[in-house]
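Lab notebook, design round three. We kept the backbone fixed and only want residue identities now. Task for the bench partner: fill in a sequence for the structure below.
Input structure tokens:
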């Protein structure tokens, strides 16, 4: 149970109570009870009609009671009593409010004497209700009448602003009581403190302070605050300023501005806007120009060499351009321009570097094929270029004095459709996958070098990493050579494979190149003579990365395979006593060809020459010439030579008596049919 509360000397005058007929009654002193808004004045009655003199009067901060089945205060009955709360307060600008109530038993709510809620009934449980009302601006009185007839007694009531933007369209009242005080800060610059009285709105969110230049109507917000003062430092521009205060509520509504406070005068400590400086270099001068700055009475032009640390004033002018003819040709100078107002305040432009120069290369374009960086540029009017150079740097901006001059090769000159002379060259060096910065300069026919072109940033495609070595490399000996096979490379940038025969004594022999997508290679035609061979397969990517032979070893791991060739040599070889020798050759479509070289005596003394071929099936030499060749024969082609194998030939010189002497043995290799 909540007893009667808050009857203190601070909130109400003393109550004078007497006893009459066993009930608590109030003397006339009760009528003098006052409660400071927004505290309610609460009156207890021993009836439900609020008739007669209240039995008790005190102050209550809220209407929120639960007496249960007991009396609300000493001396009052537990049934058939009434309690009345009243409060008069300033609602400021007013607006939409919600009145939520809950009671057991009866409840009535009045606004300025007009009933807004009527729940006047003896009930057995708590009844709740919320009514939305619009309260006008200014002071208004709320009254809550509560009656308990029988049973439990409880009551709550509140009034709260509705603050959503869709509901609340009422602006706060304009703040009143505004004043300003002006005093200097530690640097003798003006400080302004604006103060004002509190607004009465219950939904007030805060205040906004605005400032404007005297003579203008444009306000600039300088502060948002929940306090009732703000200290501002107005810009020290020599202008005068006014201030005003506006209130805003939780729905975002903003009041009109209060009375302008000011004027507040300021000294001029503000420099003009910094000029925006540009420089154009010609052969004769560095030409400067800049944007005009308001309030400026003069401009100071300052210059220094790019290697110096301090500036020298060149001139003072009211113009917005200056021509510097005293700068040395080809040397870089830093310039800046200061705008100065009548009070001596100055603001300098950004530093701009320039050097007297002929026209640098223009329209420079870089493309990056896999083999390098290709530069193309347009010859300036006059066509007086005698030479040009390209500088490369890993940092930006490019410093020509320390950058690396590239070996600009493949220099070309052409004329485009418009008649312009187009020059180009290629930088084949530099690492793939690395970013470089380039600048181009040119020399005219008078021997003058230009300044640098616009800087180009180029990222070379690819990388410097060779593809991984091949896997699964195998070698299969054939009758006409060796077949190499390997797994397809997983490298996405693969271009081709290179195949070598490795010789421990010497530089490896390059055998051929296999395009990407193919993973086999036939070494041949090569005689199947039982030799042991070692082969190397090296993958190469489109950026030229692959393992290289350095003279003693491969510079990166490579894949090798060693194989013993098939041995198709004759098992017997006659003694080489003939005055002739055979030298075979293999030409596609002309397999089994051979040259015959004999001593002069054969032509006059021999009866003819026979050609024999080793037959592996019978392990004998089989004659392939039906009749002996003429003793003067110099070549022969065996048209019956089988395809896809290695065969061995020898010659016999037939004497007039039919006896034969035999030459050396030599091999010939044929490819499979259709190979």
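Proposed sequence:
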């Amino acid at each position: 149970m909540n007893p009667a509360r808050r009857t203190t000397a601070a909130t109400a005058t003393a109550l004078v109570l007497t006893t009459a007929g066993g009930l608590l009654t109030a003397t006339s002193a009760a009528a003098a009870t006052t409660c400071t808004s927004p505290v309610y004045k609460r009156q207890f009655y021993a009836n439900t009609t609020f008739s007669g003199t209240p039995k008790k009067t005190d102050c209550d901060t809220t209407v929120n009671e639960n007496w249960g089945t007991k009396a609300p205060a000493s001396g009052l009955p537990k049934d058939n009593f009434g309690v009345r709360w009243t409060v008069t307060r300033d609602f400021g600008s007013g607006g939409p409010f919600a009145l939520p109530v809950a009671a057991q038993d009866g409840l009535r709510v009045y606004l300025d004497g007009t009933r807004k809620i009527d729940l006047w009934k003896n009930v057995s449980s708590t009844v709740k209700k919320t009514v939305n009302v619009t309260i006008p601006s200014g002071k208004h009185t709320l009254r809550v009448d509560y009656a308990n007839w029988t049973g439990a007694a409880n009551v709550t009531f509140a009034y709260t602003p509705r603050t959503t933007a869709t509901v609340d369209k009422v602006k706060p009242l304009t703040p009143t009581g505004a004043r300003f005080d002006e005093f200097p800060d530690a640097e003798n610059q003006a400080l302004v403190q604006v103060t004002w009285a509190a607004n009465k709105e219950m939904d007030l969110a805060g205040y906004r302070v605005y400032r404007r230049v005297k003579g203008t109507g444009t306000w600039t917000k300088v502060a948002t605050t929940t306090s009732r003062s703000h200290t501002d430092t107005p810009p020290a521009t020599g202008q005068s300023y006014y201030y005003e205060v506006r209130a805003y509520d939780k729905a975002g509504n903003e009041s009109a501005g209060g009375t302008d406070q000011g004027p507040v005068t300021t000294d001029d400590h503000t420099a003009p806007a910094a000029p925006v400086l540009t420089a154009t270099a010609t052969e004769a001068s560095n030409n400067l120009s800049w944007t005009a700055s308001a309030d400026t009475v003069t401009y100071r032009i300052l210059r220094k060499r790019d290697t110096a640390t301090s500036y020298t004033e060149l001139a003072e002018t009211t113009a917005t351009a200056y021509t510097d003819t005293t700068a040395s040709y080809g040397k870089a100078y830093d310039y800046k321009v200061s705008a100065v107002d009548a009070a001596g305040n100055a603001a300098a432009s950004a530093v701009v570097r320039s050097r007297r120069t002929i026209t640098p290369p223009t329209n420079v374009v870089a493309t990056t094929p896999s083999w390098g960086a290709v530069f193309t540029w347009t010859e300036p009017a006059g066509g007086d270029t005698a030479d040009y150079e390209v500088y490369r740097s890993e940092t930006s901006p490019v410093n020509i004095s320390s950058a690396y001059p590239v070996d600009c090769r493949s220099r070309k000159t052409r004329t485009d459709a418009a008649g312009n002379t187009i020059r180009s060259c290629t930088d084949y060096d530099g690492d793939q996958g690395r970013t470089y910065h380039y600048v181009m300069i040119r020399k005219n026919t008078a021997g003058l070098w230009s300044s640098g072109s616009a800087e180009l940033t180029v990222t070379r495609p690819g990388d410097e990493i060779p593809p991984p070595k091949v896997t699964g490399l195998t070698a299969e000996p054939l009758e006409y050579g060796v077949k190499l096979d390997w797994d397809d490379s997983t490298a996405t940038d693969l271009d081709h494979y290179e195949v070598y025969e490795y010789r421990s004594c010497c530089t490896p022999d390059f055998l051929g190149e296999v395009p990407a997508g193919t993973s086999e290679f036939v070494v041949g035609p090569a005689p199947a003579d039982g030799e042991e061979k070692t082969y190397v397969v090296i993958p190469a990517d489109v950026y030229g990365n692959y393992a290289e032979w350095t003279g003693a070893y491969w510079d990166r791991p490579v894949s090798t395979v060693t194989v013993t060739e098939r041995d198709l040599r004759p098992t017997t070889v006659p003694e080489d006593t003939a005055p002739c020798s055979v030298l075979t050759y293999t030409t596609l479509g002309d397999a089994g060809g051979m040259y015959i070289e004999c001593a002069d005596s054969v032509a006059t003394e021999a009866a003819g020459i026979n050609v024999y071929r080793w037959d592996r099936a019978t392990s004998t030499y089989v004659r392939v010439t039906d009749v002996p060749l003429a003793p003067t024969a110099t070549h022969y082609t065996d048209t019956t030579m089988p395809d896809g194998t290695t065969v061995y030939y020898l010659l016999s010189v037939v004497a007039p008596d039919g006896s034969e002497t035999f030459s050396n043995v030599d091999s010939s290799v044929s490819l499979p049919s259709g190979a």
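Keep this in mind before ordering anything: Residues 474-564 form a domain with the Immunoglobulin-like fold (CATH 2.60.40.10).
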